[in-house]
Design brief:
With 148 residues, this protein is α+β, with helices and mostly antiparallel strands. It has seven helices and five strands; from the N terminus they run H-E-E-H-H-H-H-E-H-E-E-H. It has helices spanning 20-30, 50-57, 62-65, 75-83, 89-92, 106-115, 136-146; strands spanning 34-38, 44-49, 100-101, 120-124, 130-135.
């Protein structure tokens, strides 16, 4: 089975100039953790995810020590949350994105998801345009359908 058989072709995406707070609200309303960022020609620029937002608002020393002491309403976190409206999607998106092609095998995509810890992977055509997206749920459903 190939990615083109299971990918979602209706791509909900963000534009790089969109407000980061509005983009986060979009993630909340869609009940998903991330969206691809596409330019006006449909080319992939990055991924905007909850993970990047968390890294932006948590104290910078989290990345150095791996954890932090919980404080009720820490001032630094509160300030960063309030400042989120001052950023664009481009400011906070992850630029290194795991991608796949339409002709990739299902097992290849599953392997990428596990090794790269990716929840969803944009699917690009030969012209490097985003033509779909494949999520872990899509892969699991297809695997269970194929082997039941």
């Amino acid at each position: 089975m190939r990615v083109k058989e299971i990918m979602q072709t209706k791509i909900i995406s963000l534009k790089p100039g969109e407000n980061a707070k509005d983009a986060l609200d979009k993630l909340f309303s869609l009940k998903i953790s991330g969206l691809p960022v596409l330019d006006e020609k449909g080319r992939l620029l990055g991924m905007f995810t909850e993970k990047e937002i968390i890294f932006k608002i948590l104290p910078s020393y989290v990345s150095k020590v791996g954890r932090f002491s919980y404080e009720e309403n820490p001032k630094a976190v509160k300030q960063k949350i309030l400042q989120l409206k001052n950023f664009t999607v481009k400011d906070l998106m992850r630029k290194e994105v795991v991608i796949t092609t339409e002709d990739a095998a299902l097992c290849e995509v599953a392997h990428l998801m596990v090794t790269q810890r990716a929840r969803r992977i944009p699917v690009l055509n030969k012209a490097k345009e985003a033509v779909g997206i494949v999520a872990r749920e899509d892969v699991l459903k297809a695997l269970f359908e194929e082997y039941k």
